[in-house]
Amino acid sequence: MMFRRSLTTPQVIFDPKLVFKLILRRRNTDAAPGLSGWTESLILPLLPHKDLLEAFTTLLQDIAAGNLSDQARQLLLTSSLVPTKKGDDGKGVRPIAVSETFVKLSTLYLLDSLPANTLTNILAPLGCGSPGGPEVAIHLAQANIIMAFQLFQHHPLSHSGD
Questions:
Q1: CA-based end-to-end distance of the chain
Q2: Exposed/middle/buried for 98, CB within 10 Å: 0-12, 13-18, 19+?
C-alpha cells in the first residue's frame, strides 16, 4: 500500500462545520452518485454524529491532499460514462463522466474556500465562455502536465522509493 503526497501540495485543514454546511446545501441537487452509490442526501443523516462528521471531514481532507492508497485513489477516481446527444441537431455524442460524490465534495470545499472571483480571473484568459476556449484550456493543461512530469522525473526525491 503506497500513499502519495506531492511535496508542493499545501496541507488544507477542513472545518467540520463548513463540511456539514456544504453537504446541507447540496442535499437536494439530484446529482447522480458515483460508482459507490453515495449521494449527499445519504451522507447527511450521518453527520449530526460528531465522530462521523469528524471522520467524514478527514476523508474529504485526505482526498484533497492526495493522502490515499493506490487502491483508494483508483476507486475514487473511477467514473461512469454516460453518452448524451450533442447539439440541437442531436448529431454527435457528448460523454458525461459521473464522478464519485466524495471527490466532488472535496473539490467543492476547496473551490468554496477560494477568494471571490479567483476562478473567473484564472479562466477568463483561457477563453472560457468563447468559441474554442475549452480547447485552449486543454492544451495549456496538457502542456503543464507534461512539463511537471518531466520536472518530477529529474527531481532527486522522485526515485527514492525505487
A1: 14
A2: middle
